[in-house]
Amino acid sequence: MPNIDTTVTCPVCDMPLQFSDETRKSLRCVSSHRFDAAKQGYFNFLTGKGTNYLEDTSAMVQAREAFQSSGHYAPLAGKLSELVEKYRQGSTLDLLDAGAGTGYYLNQILTATGNCQQDALALDISRFAMRRAAKLPSTMAVVWDVWRRLPSADASRDVVLNCFAPHNPAEFRRVLREDGACIVVTGEPDHLNEVIEPLGMLSVAEGKLAALSEKFAAEHLAHSETQHLSYQMALNEEDLYNLAFMGPAGHHLSPETLRDKVRSLGNQQVTASFGVHVFVPEP
Q1: 3-state class (DSSP) for residue 81
Q2: I need a labelling partner for 137 at 20 to 30 A (CA). Which of 106, 119, 184, 252 fits?
Q3: Could you tell me which residue ranges the 23S rRNA (guanine(745)-N(1))-methyltransferase N-terminal domain spans (predicted)?
């Protein structure tokens, strides 16, 4: 059994997982737990009882891919790439994307840091999202619930990326190296404020950074810096549909009703407003 990658750990016994051969289609640990890749290339670690949380559907993931491919969040992807380059150490990048979605931001980061040796672990609860993330270079895509113990070894990652996804600071701290960084992206209170109410989307709560900092400090991750990013997006009706349907509201929005709402709005100038927060391990 070749020792190809020992940073990814077995979700059953927490021992290192290794590829059984050079095809990289089967993972095994010394306890003989085995995980085979789906035909689309991702691994599903949610065995047994699975999870109580809803995965993003195929239609939601398609909407997200269409919106992101249009470049509306490209400035955010660029900002994340700059921060990863700032905080990574040496000539390697070991990155864990907790709640990776389609891997859009991860792909931009890997492209921007392509001059170094890369090892990325993309985690998301949605099988449909991981089908896309599995196509990224230097990336293992795994269906997993990020509220649980992350399938990565202690102190194995330079950077943990957590973009519009559930926060698990205790696990982020465990997998980070002492000189690593956790980069968390949240929406600011004015994010998408022109269309949240008319499209039935979820709003962003006030005081997000204070609550986030307290939560992370309890797990020995100190707030290092926050960079704010705000700009206007020119969105047509298809963009607006995808924007609303790709997020959490997509679980309860009726596509037909949403189409009607979008048609009544027409093209819109919409505010994109993000907080990009960096947390570092405390000594």
Answers
A1: helix
A2: 184
A3: 9-46
Annotated binding site: 29, 33, 73, 102-103, 191
Residues 123 and 69 in one domain: yes
Token pair in block for residue 166: 């559930």
**How confident is the model over 220-276, as pLDDT tens digits?**
999 999 999 999 999 999 999 999 999 988 898 899 999 999 999 999 999 999 999
Tell me, what CATH number does 155's domain have?
Answer: 3.40.50.150
Contact 55, 65 (CB under 8 A): no
Terminal Cα distance for the chain, rounded? 37
| Nearest alpha-carbon partner for 160 in 174, 176, 144, 143 | 176
Domain hosting residue 90, numbered range: 52-281
Q: Is residue 44 part of a domain?
A: no
User: Which residues contribute to the annotated binding site for S-adenosyl-L-methionine?
Assistant: 73, 102-103, 191
Q: What's the token pair of residue 125?
A: 């609860």
Is the model's pLDDT at 216 over the cut of 50? yes
Q: Are residues 95 and 17 in the same domain?
A: no
Residues placed in the known binding site for Zn(2+): 29, 33
